[in-house]
Task: inverse folding
């Protein structure tokens, strides 16, 4: 590529784009700091589920985003959802 575009000005017309995917799940651990005298206050108690620390794939909210950049150009960050495929990649 460098032999084809040896000068910096040659790269002004090249665009780079990429997509990213990640999963968002319910928060695993919550830490509560209580003030003195609130040890058994019902609003300060945290109920724990047996499987709370296990991240289940069906509970993940999948997020997909795409963006592009080039010389003097930056696209908007585009969030998208493709229900027809499982990995969310753009074709």
Result:
């Amino acid at each position: 590529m460098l032999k084809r575009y040896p000068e910096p000005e040659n790269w002004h017309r090249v665009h780079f784009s990429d997509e990213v995917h990640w999963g968002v799940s319910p928060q695993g651990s919550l830490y509560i700091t209580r003030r003195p005298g609130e040890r058994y206050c019902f609003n300060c108690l945290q109920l724990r589920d047996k499987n709370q620390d296990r991240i289940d794939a069906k509970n993940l909210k999948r997020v997909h985003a795409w963006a592009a950049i080039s010389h003097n150009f930056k696209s908007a960050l585009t969030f998208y959802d493709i229900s027809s495929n499982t990995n969310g990649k753009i074709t």
In short: The mean pLDDT is 76. Residues 15 and 70 are 5 Å apart (CA to CA).
